[in-house]
Amino acid sequence: IAMALAGNARRDGAARRPAVALALLFSAACSLCGLLRTVGFVGTSPAAAPRGSLVARRVDIIQVPGGMKNGLKLLIDGSPYQVMSFLSKKQGKGVAITKTKVKDLFTGALSDKTFASGSKYEVVETEWVDATYSYYNEGDNTYVFMDTVNFEEMEMKADLLGPAAEWLTEGGIIEVEKYDGRQIQIRFKDDVIVKVESIVDTGRKDGSVVALLENGLKKQGPGYLKEGDSVLISQDNWEIKKRM
């Protein structure tokens, strides 16, 4: 189009010189538009971010003791920890400290840490992915899961799973929490419901009984439980919560 406009202008002589300028301007605009489209600014949509990627990382900071709470995940001395419990108190001369029990998210090990009042820590950002439980590798004491999206296998040491490992069923759907590309813990997407295989009367005054569950575990429960009942297991303490 630009070349046609310029050709017509030249044939018509000097009277058409403004048209030549217009044609050249139009040509330059088209070239610029093509360049912008090539680099992705015009007429294109940004590519979707890869699964689990952090497009714009926002760092959250908490201050002790006001920001402290159970379950909080913090970066302490370069390693990720989860606060399991804490207690804030004042010592002599009004100096406040916060004593905590924390879990190393990479090893599952528990330890005690003390924080000074006013100290600040970065909150750990994690992601959850859906997975299915595949099998237990007795040789190296690891549990193997499969990502339901990319079908990659994920291995986790038994120490990371804790009591949750006792309630896994083959093919069961769970969620795996990841930090910095590493698996750190799991949670069940659905309620944990199991059947009672048998009942043992404890003779206790409160009437409670011991229930042998289908996964081989024994749990204390209310006296009205009977063989064949289905019970809901609390994911907070892994005890019988109620009969279904």
Automatic annotation (TrEMBL):
SUPFAM superfamilies assigned: Nucleic acid-binding proteins, Translation proteins SH3-like domain
Coiled-coil blocks: none
Single GO molecular function: translation elongation factor activity
Sequence ranges assigned to domain Translation elongation factor P/YeiP central in this UniProt record: 130-184
GO cellular component, one term: cytoplasm
One Pfam family hit: EFP
Family: Belongs to the elongation factor P family.
This protein's name: Translation elongation factor P/YeiP central domain-containing protein
